[in-house]
What we know:
Layout: E1 14-18, E2 21-22, H1 29-44, E3 52-55, H2 57-65, H3 72-89, E4 92-93, E5 99-100, E6 102-108, E7 118-122, H4 128-136, H5 139-156, H6 162-176, H7 186-204, H8 212-226, H9 230-239, E8 247-253, E9 264-269, E10 281-286, H10 290-295, E11 301-302, H11 305-311, H12 318-321, H13 323-340, E12 344-351, E13 354-362, H14 367-380, H15 385-391, H16 398-401, E14 404-405, E15 412-416, E16 418-421, E17 424-430, H17 433-441, E18 446-450, H18 458-463, E19 466-469, H19 477-485, E20 489-491, E21 497-499, E22 504-507, E23 510-513, E24 517-521, E25 526-529, E26 534-535, H20 541-553, E27 557-561, H21 565-573, E28 579-583, H22 591-602, H23 606-631, E29 636-639, H24 653-663, H25 667-677, H26 689-694, H27 696-717, E30 723-727, H28 733-754, E31 761-766, H29 769-773, H30 775-778, E32 784-787, H31 789-797, H32 805-813, H33 830-844, E33 849-852, H34 860-868, E34 873-876, H35 881-893
Parallel strand pairs: 4-5, 17-18, 18-19, 19-20, 27-28, 27-34, 28-29, 29-30, 30-31, 31-32, 32-33, 33-34
Antiparallel strand pairs: 1-2, 1-3, 3-8, 6-7, 6-8, 9-10, 9-12, 10-11, 12-13, 14-26, 15-25, 16-20, 17-24, 21-22, 22-23, 24-25
Helix pairs in contact: 4-5, 5-7, 6-7, 14-15, 14-20, 15-20, 20-35, 21-23, 22-23, 22-24, 23-27, 27-28, 34-35
The structure holds phosphoenolpyruvate (PEP) and magnesium ion.
Amino acid sequence: MASLPKTDTSDRYVYRFGGGVSDGGQGDKNLLGGKGANLDGMASIGLPVPPGFTISTAMCTRYYDEGGQFPQSLRDEVATGIAHIEGITGKSFGDEADPLLVSVRSGARTSMPGMMDTVLNLGLNDRTVEGLAQASGDARFAWDSYRRFIQMYADVVLELDHGAFEEALEIAKEDKGFHLDTDLTSEDLEALVDRYKALVEQQWGKPFPQDVHDQLWGAVGAVFGSWQSERAKVYRRLHDIPGSWGTAVNVQAMVFGNMGETSATGVAFTRDPSTGERAYYGEFLINAQGEDVVAGIRTPQYLTLAARERAGAKAASMQEAMPAVYDELAKVFDLLETHYRDMQDIEFTVQQGKLWMLQTRAGKRTAKAALKIAVDMANEGLITREEAIGRVDPAALDQLLHPTLDPKAPRDVIAKGLPASPGAASGKAVFDADSAERMAAAGEAVILVRVETSPEDIHGMHAARGILTARGGMTSHAAVVARGMGRPCVSGVGSLAIDARAKLFRVGGREVTAGDILTIDGATGEVMLGEVATVQPELAGDFGVLMEWADGVRRLKVRANAETPLDCRTARQFGAEGVGLCRTEHMFFDAGRITSVRQMILAEDEKGRRAALEKLLPEQRSDFAEIFEIMAGLPVTIRLLDPPLHEFLPHEEGEFAEVAAATGIDVEKLKRRAAELHEFNPMLGHRGCRLGVTYPEIYEIQARAIFEAAVAVANKTGDAPIPEVMVPLVATRRELELMKAVIDKAAEAVFAETGTRLEYLVGTMIELPRAALKAGEIAEVGAFFSFGTNDLTQTALGVSRDDAARFLGVYVEQGIYAKDPFVSLDIEGVGELIQLAAERGRKTRPDIKLGICGEHGGDPASIAFCEAIGLDYVSASPYRVPIARLAAAQAALKP
Ligand code: PEP
Ligand code: MG
């Protein structure tokens, strides 16, 4: 029997909060959005929250499904919501004597700072503005609120050209010779409102809406509409937020921070979001509305006395200017931290001495702060160690693992601003986001220089190595977004005179133009000309503590992909428990050796190849020995040669000449040979074990180098290495069988010659779909499998790993793959092949060692999958080893 269609009234979309009412019951973020859920949460623990209601995210989805229409039932529910606010405030919406004004704000499940729309002071019109003037006893305030409302509404809801409104405001000030908005009188503002209304009518073709209900529905529609704005889409893509989540809309009684000197508005963090230090941290502005703080139009004052003194600022801190409200606020901070058990980012308003809480959410923080806060909170007993492990985003550790400025390096400091997001970065100065994106795509390091950033700059901020702004505080858009992205940022460098059109800035009598190299230090706020040397990061302290906790809970081992002694040392420093992949062909990239490799590749017969290999053997042997020594008994997987020929064949005259000189074969002959070897599809060509099958002497001599090195190190240090010799690109059992025979023979020869016998393993990469399918047979020969997910992704998807960038972006945008499958494993497809191979391999050989060594070994989501299917280890590039350790711990803790 077909089910009846849902009627409008079967769904509830409006949830009230405040005044003892809490329809959301502690707030479900998925339904109410983050802001709505926490407003409800704050109201329910008795904090002063202006009453309001939330229209759920489910309505957003339905609104889009139904082509931008609201159901009738919603209108009834919203009327109930408005009545709720009216009941508590004692004011009526649209009342000409004492009107209720509301704010209308977006609120997705996770915060998307500055990405979506907000309308304040809604409910003002030509008549209610008079009522507001009467009731507040402040005509200037009433007219200022009305002009702000028209300006915001025209921009956000009517989508008119906001430049014209800003210009009208500037002209109004200029006419009077004023500098600040606050200098304008009530009469000036009333005249400005007339000008604004005329602008609306001119551009929109209709008068500014006077019906407060029309205003409200316009604003609600605009907030839902902003979910699909370009900038919101870009933000979602960068942060992996699904478009299907939708946003909620919060409608709330207005409170005013701009009602004179006992009123204020501010933003605060319960701990320092840059360092994690346990100290209240924030900014406020007296006699201002919330948007003024975030927009960076006026320079805010510090919240605490300590912060003001440290900065050497003159303007009074809130602790000094409003001590009673500050004390109340400090109590609220503690209450919220205990309630939400995390560092909170808070917005508040003081209206004529009364504190109101407008928002709380888990605060965005730098990786350094995340670590410190997690470790401190666990030590304080607020959260468990397991929770602390879960609190740090493994990918964000990247910020900490990269170099900072060498304190001893000479530097030419040209300016100083706020240390808005830590880390050091050097690059060419660029003055707009599009150029930043273009140059970064061409492989250039750039520093994006802006007067202030806006959400339209987000793609450029992402592409840049660092961000430098002349305006804006620590909570400005630039600062918040840069911290979230892990980009170093110096903001509020007031001394920079930026001329973005001319692509230059002047500071202290000097001029910096586009393309000049700049260095910024986001930890000190310094701006330097030229590139400054860097040093390696500090790995002790909170980092060391959290890593130790993580190591205590993880099951997966973490190894590194490393082929040079330097890589191996870095890897060990970062806690690698072995080498999971030593790509021997990469050992030949340096200039002295590549000629011998080319000689080997171009040789026409075994004799020629052996001659080249004999040159390489001693070098390989000493490299292997050094790696074995550094890894001191930890497992080391050495992969035999796997050179896609196009990466190694000579191309330029000089390269041919070098090979000719080394071999005595003439250049023309070498060129003919190279032409013969040319492949149309080198990734599927004569590479991997196909090279070993056709020219066994290559693998024989490499294996000899491995065993000679291992024996030498065993005899020298007494710490016998256990080499794991790995055969690449195997598709069939027979290939591995043939190669294993070559390797075993080389081992036996070395053991006989040296009189020393060692344990070793022979295994294979699983990087072709056929190998995954036939893993049961292959495991009869190989003692271990290492999943080469770069090639496995390439071959399973039929997508060239070298050419994918051209179209994969569109694939991800279209949702065909959730993420770039070369970065984050395609778990559904490639993952199934891995799982199947692991099962079949184990069935044949229950103790088979299983690992992964493709790029995915350093990707947290892929690591979670490796944990779920019970692999033994993941192997990642050295800098990603700590990320993998933490991700493996988080995966192990997942229920
Ligand atoms: C792989 O294919 O995943 C792998 C690790 O090998 P390479 O990247 O060298 O082909
Ligand atoms: Mg491979």
